[in-house]
Design goal:
By secondary structure, the chain is of the alpha+beta class. 55% of the residues lie in helices and 14% in strands.
Length: 168
């Protein structure tokens, strides 16, 4: 019983500490403008995006990352998230409810059902995984737009040149 009380007290202390850090960082970051968003989106694409081909494509299991990706495309490139050039690909495990998870991604991203490609179903089961970070499977947003892809890749090249300068 005292162990449970100790855990509760420690959890409350951690939460309070994290709240203070969040408040401090929110003040430090300040208001995010369109340029900030463009830089953050380019970094996301550099790390999580598919570099080959002529489309802008980002995959992740984290719904917040995928929502941010759409925000980046909308605010920085004027893309409509319901555009027919925007396709959503999902990757699920055989023990997942495909309809339910597809609906989760549709609602979370604010896109239309016809934008979804046929889901890929992996034969292994999510319940067999040691880690459960794939709560809703993997989602990939793919925008067919060569001009946007070229701009993003140019930004990545600029960032990589900055990384080269930092080594000197």
């Amino acid at each position: 019983m005292w162990i449970e009380k100790f855990r509760e007290v420690m959890k409350a202390k951690r939460e309070e500490k994290l709240k203070k850090i969040y408040t401090m960082q929110k003040s430090y970051v300040g208001r995010i403008n369109k340029r900030d968003l463009a830089m953050m989106g380019t970094g996301l694409y550099w790390g999580e995006g598919q570099k080959g081909g002529s489309s802008v494509s980002v995959s992740n299991t984290d719904p917040e990352v995928m929502k941010f990706c759409l925000l980046w495309l909308e605010k920085c490139f004027g893309v409509n998230r319901k555009s027919e050039k925007m396709r959503i690909y999902t990757h699920f495990y055989s023990d997942m409810d495909v309809e339910k998870e597809t609906d989760f991604w549709r609602r979370t991203l604010g896109v239309n059902k016809p934008q979804f490609a046929k889901p890929y179903i992996k034969l292994s089961k999510r319940s067999d995984l040691d880690y459960k970070s794939f709560g809703h499977g993997t989602c990939r947003i793919q925008l067919s737009n060569v001009k946007i892809k070229e701009r993003v890749m140019a930004n990545i090249q600029i960032f990589s040149e900055l990384a080269d300068l930092a080594v000197e």
